[in-house]
Amino acid sequence: MTKKKNNKEEEVIVEEIKENTPSAKETNTSNTEDAAKEKSGNKKKPKKDKKQVELDELKTKFAEISDKHLRLQAEFDNFRRRTMKEKIDLIKSGGESVLINILPVIDDFERALDSLKEVSDDDAGKQGTALIYNKFKEFLKQNNVKEIDALNQDFDVDLHEALTKIPAPEKKLKGKVVDVIQKGYLLNEKVIRFAKVVIGE
């Protein structure tokens, strides 16, 4: 009786062991899976193929070229604007030196007309001088040359050049221009000759 009992108990224990112990097949498959996992974990990332590398290089080159193109375009725009401005300035004041050299001639005509005040208006010499003087004045006007208004004006360093100071004939003329020795002129609002003046103090 005890032998049978012991045998049965042994059989039950053996069966339990069999159930809990994995078979050789299961062990092999699990080992294979683990090995595969390890291999996949250890594998290096696949290298980029040649086409991808070439494409990346082309993209970089394209970015560089487009950047250079934009810079060149900006430089050209700046150059064009600067050239246009210079051309406009040249057109505005292109004949500046010629106009400056004409101013002493105008001064001479004004002095001549002053000396001819006593002569009658019918005199041919006076009429001829006045005619030429007026033509010169018209020429200056057409070329945007304008006389600086100085007499009885406040002294302005940007327009006038003070030669001397004298006592002002009236109180209201203190610090103002009381006499103009030589007229000044503007070309397109730029001073081409300062007015030489006397200031009252």
Q: What's the short version?
A:
By secondary structure, this protein is α+β, with helices and mostly antiparallel strands. It is built from 5 helices and 6 strands; from the N terminus they run αααααββββββ.
Structural description of this entry:
- The chain is an alpha+beta fold and 201 residues long.
- Among the domains are: 61 residues; 57 residues, Roll (Nucleotide Exchange Factor Grpe, Chain A, domain 2).
- It is built from 5 helices and 6 strands.
- Strands 1-4-5 form a 3-stranded antiparallel sheet. It has a 3-stranded mixed sheet with strand order 2-6-3, with no helix packed on it.
- A hairpin with a 2-residue loop joins strand 4 and strand 5.
- Helix 4 packs antiparallel against helix 5.
- The longest helix is centred in the middle third of the chain and has 44 residues.
- It is elongated, with a radius of gyration of 53 Å.
Number of helices: 5
Q: What structural class do you assign from the helix and strand content?
A: alpha+beta
Strand percentage, roughly?
5-15%
Shape by Cα distribution: elongated
- Give the overall pLDDT as a whole number: 79
- The portion of residues assigned to helices is 55-70%
Low-confidence stretches: none
Strand line-up across the major sheet: 1-4-5
Span of the ends, CA to CA: 153 Å
Cα Rg? 53 Å
Biggest sheet: strands, sense, closure? Answer: 3 strands, antiparallel
SSE ordering? HHHHHEEEEEE
- How many beta strands in the DSSP annotation? 6
